[in-house]
Design a protein that fits this description.
Helices cover 4% and strands 39% of the residues. By secondary structure, the chain is mainly beta. It has one domain. The strands form two sheets. A four-stranded antiparallel sheet has the order 1-2-3-4, with no helix packed on it. A hairpin with a 5-residue loop joins strand 5 and strand 6. The relative contact order is 0.22.
């Protein structure tokens, strides 16, 4: 599922608090000439890790991470209380911020 389009942003964070790093990624590229179409099949992906370098893709309904636009960068940050957020830089649009259910 991750290989449906290009990946332009990626971050590693423990999404489900199981002690294992997970991967959040997104992309797309709309800058191609019309005759070549555009890369627009990536809606963002969450891959849950098991600590043994195996990752399982999560459905959009399960992960809650779904963006149709061009994601150019993904970064994580914490607020003053230590809660982790993911911010996505989207080309020609406002950034989107996601948090985790705890």
């Amino acid at each position: 599922m991750v290989q449906l389009s290009c990946v332009c942003g990626i971050t590693c964070v423990d999404v489900n608090n199981d002690g294992n790093l997970d991967i959040i990624l997104g992309g797309n590229n709309f800058e191609f000439k019309p005759q070549y179409s555009r890369l627009d099949a990536n809606y963002g992906s969450v891959l849950l890790g098991n600590g043994k370098l195996d990752f399982t893709w999560q459905n959009y309904d399960t992960s809650g991470f779904f963006i149709r636009n061009e994601i150019k960068h993904i970064e994580q940050f914490k607020d003053k209380n230590g809660k982790t957020f993911i911010i996505t830089a989207i080309n020609n649009d406002k950034p989107k911020i996601f948090t985790f259910n705890e």
